[in-house]
Amino acid sequence: DEWIENIVELESNIESYPNPGIKVFQYGTSGIRYNSEHLDHVLHRMGLLVALRSIHLKSAAVGLMITASHNPQDDNGIKLIDPLGEMLDSSWEVYATKLANAPNNQDVCAMLINIAYENNIDKKYIPRVYIGRDTRNSGKRLLDAVLCGVNAFNSNVEDFGIITTPMLHFFVRCYNTNGLYGQPSEHSYYTKLTNSFKTLRKMANLKNYSPVIEFDGANGVGALKMKDAIIHLEETLVINMHNDDIMNTEKLNYKCGADFVKSNQCPPTGMTIKPHSKYVSVDGDADRIVYSFVDENNKFYLLDGDRIATLVAGYIKDLFIASGLDVNVGLVQTAYSNGNSTKYVTDKLKVPVACVPTGVKYLHHKANDYDVGIYFEANGHGTILFKDAIRELIRNQCSIEVDEAKSLALKKLICIMDMTNETVGDAYSDMLIVESVLCERGWSISDWYKTYSDLPNRLKQVTVKDRNTFETGDAERICLKPLGLQEKIDSIVLKYSMGRSFVRPSGTEDVVRIYAEADTQINADKLAVEVATAVYDIADGVGKKPE
Ligand code: G16
Asked: Which residues are involved in binding substrate (predicted)?
């Protein structure tokens, strides 16, 4: 039969990448990640799988990004991208997990053929696969494994080399929308996003705003690409580069970058920190961004994904009011979002808020429920989604609007739409949006911080014997397993004024994460330690007891 005919060819291709069987892999929060030494067969199989996915989607381009994002240099992994630039469909995540763990070549072949049958895949389509990778040392070797897999199906392959994850998402969407979204090239990406930023800048109100940015590139691809972006920005922003050493890859994400700054609530190392300067940190594949500054007493202030979400939601809401268009704007957050940010958005901005489990795929999906859905994880991963009909409505109304104020608001909305990479969180696009809103409002970074105050909070992590024994419910706000842990957390939380805490297994690292917030920083820290200790005790903690 037509698929079985291929099996001999496939088998010989698969032979080059046997599964050493040392680890059970899981397609987690955002793909598969692990120490890069053990990933060759996984990457090879993901190459096979994306090719099949493209055949299934009648030759639509699909993407494969080789990255472990915020993880240390020694890790690597993949993120798979569907045709509109969104994350891989969840039904295929199951295939990815099964394929990654298949013990031998025959199993891999049988699984691929099963997938083809289950989905009624017509073999006549030629797959098209877009590939990118971050700056990790292992990227090139793992690319060879991916190419071997992809080529087994005689795919059309485009290797974009070292690029950011959101760039690859953007390119995939551009190809599949026949250029409507832009062209699949770095030049088109920079031009689209940056030109609309420059247009909006001409309409803006400067006041306390400063265009100077101290940029923390996490010693990764974000730094590399920001150097190209600076040329397109033509001095509309003054970007001072730091942590841009991509040659020494052991420095990647090390004590710098968005994940470090957010998790440790302190400035990045590798740069001099001056009071009231505006610091921007991105992560290892530049899909996350956080802002920070210190005051004259060296007190640190973090403006994370929650802050970006509130800034953007307030601005977009105001633009729609000014434009006269009645549009339903909503915000999607996760359990990590600070309680006061949710309160501010609901009570002050009057924007509805939904809460979903961690993982951009969940936030993105939920954001589609609104005409304009804004989503941000507290860690700085997020974007804005505009429904096609709304996009059209804004453009049409702008072309006929006679009222000057309304017309201006519509023009500004168009700029914001065009500088947004709607496919996924994108540090560069998000930075342009934040800078636009700050400039429009005439705000310094401390003006932005003053909009509301965060509840003091703390993130912790505990390594346990098997994090797969953890199960959560209610958008990760309660822990269902191990049994008894939630009751313990409840009794601890009761002792703290304004206390809230939850635990969940990470989908990208071998740890259980703990979040705690309370009325004071001391209490948030104490609460986090108490809950972390409960996790450690109940789930066979590994290493030092939390303190
Ligand atoms: C990925 C996901 C994010 C998630 C983060 C941490 O980010 O895209 O949605 O918040 O992992 O996930 P976890 O807590 O499950 O480890 P990135 O930037 O590392 O790809």
From this structure: 377-379, 504-508, 513
Q: Is the minimum distance from the CB of 30 to ligand 1 under 6 angstroms? A: yes
What is the pLDDT at residue 245?
98
pLDDT digit string (tens) for 378-412?
999 999 999 999 999 999 999 999 999 999 999 99
Q: Is 29 in the pocket of ligand 1 (CB under 6 A)?
A: yes
Amino acid making up residue 361: K
Contact predicate 498/517, CB 8 Å: yes
With contact defined as beta carbons under 8 Å apart, do 78 and 24 qualify? no
Please state, in angstroms and rounded to a whole number, the distance separating the CA atoms of residues 79 and 285.
Answer: 11
Query: 276-303, pLDDT tens digit by residue?
Result: 999 999 999 999 999 999 999 999 999 9
Three-state secondary structure string covering 385-444 = EECHHHHHHHHHHHHHCCCHHHHHHHHHHHHHHHHCCCCCCCHHHHHHHHHHHHHHHCCC
Phi, psi angles (nearest 5°) of residue 426:
-145, 110
Chain segment 171-199, per-residue pLDDT in tens? 999 999 999 999 999 999 999 999 999 99
ipTM: 0.96
Q: 513-522 pLDDT, tens per residue?
A: 999 999 999 9
Q: What is the dihedral of CA 302, 316, 211, 430, to 10 degrees?
A: 60
> CA 194 to CA 423: how far, in whole Å?
17
| Residue nearest atom 4 in ligand 1 by C-alpha distance | 359
CA atoms within 13 A on the CB side of 339: 16
Q: Please check the confidence at residue 141 and state whether its pLDDT lies above 90.
A: yes
Query: What residues are annotated to the active site?
Result: 69
Phi and psi, residue 432, nearest 5°: -65, -40
Question: Alpha-carbon distance 315 to 388, whole Å?
Answer: 20
- The answer to whether residues 243 and 223 touch, using CB atoms and an 8 Å cutoff, is yes
Residue with CA closest to ligand 1 atom 13: 506
Q: Is the CB of 288 under 6 A from ligand 1?
A: yes
Cα-Cα-Cα-Cα torsion 343, 209, 412, 194, nearest 10 degrees, comes to: -110
**Distance between alpha carbon 514 and the CA centroid of its chain, in Å?**
20
Rounded Cα distance between 224 and 126, Å, is 33
The atom number, within ligand 1, closest to the CA of 361 reads 9
Q: Picking from 9-13, 29-33, 264-268, which range would have the lowest pLDDT averaged per residue?
A: 9-13
What CA–CA distances, in Å, run from 274 to 20, 115, 209, 217, 369? 50, 56, 17, 17, 42
Our answer on whether the CB atom of 381 is closer than 6 Å to any ligand 1 atom is yes
| d(C-alpha 30, C-alpha 364), whole Å | 13
| CA pair distance 58, 93, nearest whole angstrom | 19
The 10 Å Cβ neighbour count of residue 484 is: 11
162 DSSP β-pair partners: 133
Residue 16 pLDDT: 86
pLDDT at 423: 98
- Omega before residue 482 within 30° of 0, cis: yes
State the distance from the centre of ligand 1 to the C-alpha of 217, rounded, in angstroms.
Answer: 18
Angle in degrees, 0-180, between the axes of helices 404-419 and 305-323, rounded to the nearest 10: 150
